[in-house]
Amino acid sequence: MQRYFVEGPVPANGEVQLSGDDARHITKVMRGAPGDRIIIVMEEKAYEAAVESVSPEVTAILQTEITAQVELPVKVTIACGLPKGDKLELITQKATELGMHALLPIEAERSIVKWDASKAEKKTGRLRKIAKEAAEQSHRTHVPHIHTPCSFQALLEHIPSFDAVIVAYEDEARSSDRTRFADTVKRLYDKDSILMVFGPEGGFSEAEVSRLRSAGALFTSLGPRILRAETAPLYALSAFSYEYE
């Protein structure tokens, strides 16, 4: 069954209105009709629902709650340097499928890409749409929040709000006594929220590394190979899934 996310509280009478892109998808793409079954997610809970009417908006009636656990047991926010091209869209889509809780793009000192403030709303809206569609496709109950890109200083200011902060650092990968990511993940079972930080394609500067260490971040290797900017977050989320699920 097709899944749709609807904002707002669960109505007492179970009657839900779907409009905009969701209504168009049901009526034009799915050729929906009264009596069809869909899944509606509200307040991070999924419900089987029956379509009651399809024009001009879609009205559906919530029925049985689906209780299957589909979210990662730990909330992992990905903070990554702005990558070139459409790589941020790829990270958004695939990281959502892998269980990411939120995405925080950052402008670091060596970032090749600079965020165009005049296009910020449009670009962020595009990423949020990608996250929503990926969450529907992967049958999640949470749509990752896509933050507007922030400065490195703003990243540091976010750190106190997390139970743990992990930095994937390429110099660790080159070290003979590197900290294994598997060992790092095993130390986090008592943590509820984790900020996983990845540098830009040019890497973090020495000053940024020093400031992250001073802020209490743990540094780790993702293995002996150097991963691309769009690969590293997906590798890390897969490791969290393997360890916790």
TrEMBL record:
> Which Pfam family is an annotated match for this chain, by its short name?
PUA_4
Catalyzed reactions per annotation: uridine(1498) in 16S rRNA + S-adenosyl-L-methionine = N(3)-methyluridine(1498) in 16S rRNA + S-adenosyl-L-homocysteine + H(+)
Q: Mind listing the GO molecular function terms for this protein? A: rRNA (uridine-N3-)-methyltransferase activity
Gene Ontology CC: one annotated term: cytoplasm
Q: Which organism is it from?
A: Planococcus lenghuensis
A GO BP entry is:
rRNA base methylation
Family membership: Belongs to the RNA methyltransferase RsmE family.
Gene3D superfamilies, from UniProt?
3.40.1280.10, Hypothetical PUA domain-like, domain 1
Where is the protein localized? Answer: Cytoplasm
EC numbers on record:
2.1.1.193
Q: What does this protein do?
A: Specifically methylates the N3 position of the uracil ring of uridine 1498 (m3U1498) in 16S rRNA. Acts on the fully assembled 30S ribosomal subunit.
UniProt keywords, alphabetically: Cytoplasm, Methyltransferase, rRNA processing, S-adenosyl-L-methionine, Transferase
Q: Entry's InterPro entries? A: Alpha/beta_knot_MTases, PUA-like_sf, RsmE, RsmE_MTase_dom, RsmE_PUA-like, tRNA_m1G_MTases_N
Q: Which domain of life is it from?
A: Bacteria
Q: What is the lineage of its organism?
A: Bacteria, Bacillati, Bacillota, Bacilli, Bacillales
Q: What is this protein called?
A: Ribosomal RNA small subunit methyltransferase E
Chain ranges of the Ribosomal RNA small subunit methyltransferase E methyltransferase domain: 71-240
Residues covered by the Ribosomal RNA small subunit methyltransferase E PUA-like domain: 18-56
